[in-house]
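Q: Protein A?
A:
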Amino acid sequence: MGITERAAVGCGRAQTFGYARARGPVTAGLALVCGIETLTMSVLLRNWPAADAVMPFLGVCTIVLVVGLHAACVLRPHLLTADTLRIRSAAHVDLRVPLEAIASVRREERTTRRRTDGELDLPVGSRTSLTLELSAAVAHVTLLGRRRAVRVIRFHAEDGERLAQTLSTLARSPMDS
């Protein structure tokens, strides 16, 4: 079982929509640069044994952190259930949007903009591919616990067209269960 198959484990009947593929090359490049930096610092610090002993450990920890951040994006995709869209970004964002709160969904490629009140941008590679406009604000809790009400959410999904079509279909159909 590969890392992409594990993403669906534990999601029940939810449809998954990944967003980490665009981060892969950048993450690999960053891990490579961290490895080169670790080796370079070992050479530069060879005359200071205490620092030279600590640097490889710090370098490996940094590489593990970078790979772990990417793994969190792969293993925590966006989830669509019968009544909720969970928009995720690694381990620090898990926003639950009730489908009845979605006023409109559109597929639009945008680059990162300035942050404004009532809007949440979750870019991947400085780009978003979907925009949700909500009829009622939802609470977004930041990494440090601050709450903000958002009515417009821009995020990226690898299969944005399918997600937009599915959301439009679910928004039009009655939610009687």
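Q: Protein B?
A:
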Amino acid sequence: MDENVQHRLIPCPNRSHDLRGKVLNAIEWGDMTIAEARTDFYISRNPIYHWMQRDRETRDLHPPRNPYGDRSHTVAGWEQFLCFIELSKLIPTRRR
């Protein structure tokens, strides 16, 4: 690998399960160090350490589930929301 090439590490919290497995297998089998893995796979060391810790604790490489469940980014009660907007226009606001 050319030493003059700067690798741009792209932050991405949702890396694939396959990539996690490849990185950890390469490190566990002694094929590469963490420093080599981060440059070859274009990731920072921090996710590798997190994956290794998660693998030791749970033997699961999937990212943890959202503890708050599946939250949709849509308004559930659209009519109530529109009513709230109309009422809030009638309430005078305090100006500072």
